[in-house]
Specification:
The chain is mainly alpha-helical. It has one domain. It has helices at 5-14, 28-40, 60-76, 85-93, 119-122, 126-131, 135-146; strands at 105-107, 112-114. The chain has a two-stranded antiparallel ribbon with strand order 1-2. Helix 2 (28-40) packs across helix 3 and helix 3 (60-76) runs antiparallel to helix 7. The two termini are 25 Å apart. The model has no long low-confidence stretch (mean pLDDT 83).
Length: 154
Amino acid sequence: MLPTVAGFLLFIRNVMGISPLVLPDNSPTINWALSIATMFVNPDLGVVGSSLNASPQTNLFVQATYNLAADNLVNYAQDQTGRTYFADLRASLKINNFAAGVVQSASDGGTSDSLVVPEALKNLTLANLQNLKTPWGRAYLAMAQTAGTLWGVA
């Protein structure tokens, strides 16, 4: 199974919950986001845990591609005239705030907290760190990392 524009459009409407009023079906951003995602998601994910009768919903490559494409949409889609959906979403997710890594430790005079940084997070690229900012980017990274470092995500 390969990802399709029609399948990604269903993902946009049913999983992301984005209305056609915000992102019309004929928006070139949809094709662009999917095309970029297919360049980066390792196609070998299509054979991981799939069977001959697998549906697109159970194909790891298709799901990883749709999630990465969704992350692309959130990061780069332009709003329709008079709307601020994507600008508001980016602001709420702090997409444009720079983060050079993940928090390992934080404290003040009375409290302290520390998280162990998993080995996989130590090797993330800047693009991967950006993916961590959206639920779809995190889902993509989880799928890619589940299959191991051989699959394109350290």
